[in-house]
Amino acid sequence: MKKITGNLIFFVNRKCPLNCPSCSAAATPLNNKELSPLWLTEFFNRLKDLEFPGYITWTGGEPFLSFKTLKTGIELAAEAKYHSEILTGGAWFDNNPGLLKQLRAVGNFSLRISLDAEHQEKIPLRLIFALIEAALRLNVEVNFTLRSIPGREAASFYKDAIKKALPDFYRKNRGRSRWIHTIPHIGTVPEKERTPACAGAPLPASGKWQNSCRQGFRDLVIGEDGLFYPCCGLFTLSCYRRLAVGDPLKESWPVLLNKQNRKPLFRVLKEKGPYFICLELGKQLEIRSSSFNNPCDVCLALFRRYGEEVLALFDRG
Ligand code: SF4
Ligand code: SF4
Fold it and tell me: Using alpha carbons only, how large is the chain's radius of gyration in Å?
């Protein structure tokens, strides 16, 4: 049996009406693609042939906007005794508060509410607090992912607000390691319609950004198109489909995982890092310097600016 050491991450959809400028999934209400309940049922049948730690993240876009699929997924995961965590912005709760109870009826899961600095004007805190309270009444664990953006703080703003509004909840959870994940802002803004991500300061002299890719290639990332991707950081790229490893309903796990391990582009990213590719291509990147500190910044900027050249280099072998 094939084995992975990371988690299983489903991008249930990439639709969301909120249009956050730095959405790391490039979610838009115009994208109607979503995983279907039937697709998930077939996938879970195949998942029996793969050993993994049993931890599943359901994300998007906004997974609650594909409720039938999400419900099927939570049910299938619960039957297989996997743990599900749903990453949500929470805006859906205003019009559809009953969805949480319907979901809880088919299986256990935890919620991870995304408290992004860009959500501050879009998703009112009263709604977030109402969602937390509803989840706690259903015995659903509530966690958070916080993300600041340049010039706007998220961590202290949200932590202070939770502490003030829900003091018992804050006290009981503040020491729990999974409770709050703080993630960096990565300049993932698509180039055309939004501010260019690859413009601004030159690269700093040295830093972790020169390292090899340490985050990709461990998780099993499934896009809303049902294809298997090497990491969840690539979905804002216009060429993202060309980075898909394969189709898990058509190819076996050994074939897919061998393809991922042997694909020259992925091997170079994993062993030498995206900066090595910049050097190979003789390309200099200019990056917004505010949060620039890891290889993913280089990787996304490189692909966004020179994606065709990178793919051509590795097509040649
Ligand atoms: S709420 Fe989340 S999924 Fe929706 S656009 Fe904003 S960052 Fe993207
Ligand atoms: S370095 Fe590139 S391939 Fe690796 S996790 Fe970051 S975005 Fe993904």
Answer: 20
